[in-house]
Amino acid sequence: MLHVSDPLYFLSFVASRAKKALFYFGNMLNKGEYSIQYIEPNRYYRDKPFPIGFGEVVVSRELLFKSLDLLGFDEIIEIPWTESWLPKSWYGTQKALLCIRKERPYSSHHKTSPNPMVTWIREHSKKIGRLFSSSSSITMD
Fold it and tell me: Burial code of 7-16, b = ≥16 C-beta within 10 A, e = fewer?
């Protein structure tokens, strides 16, 4: 979620797709409060439109854990760093969490039905394929 301008909405969307578990690997702040830190847009994002320019966003541990609880995860297991992972100097504030749903399903507000355009393309893919594979040219009047 480090490179997502709206990390809680993104977390909610990802959680809506997880029936039993979610693996989270990312940064978190230990501030003792619910907070999101937006870091000054850097060389990669400074020319992007608002709010995308905030390419480095860090959620506090407290807000992340509360959000995961509200998203229906009953158990959160922090997986400790081992030497076979990334170098410890790079690892820094990043944590690996296994978030498990045991009894509480999450009913999200995210639309789970297929996009109507995708549905139409799937239903008509054979016709579209024949149209573009034919030797006749297509003209637009």
Answer: bbeebbeebb
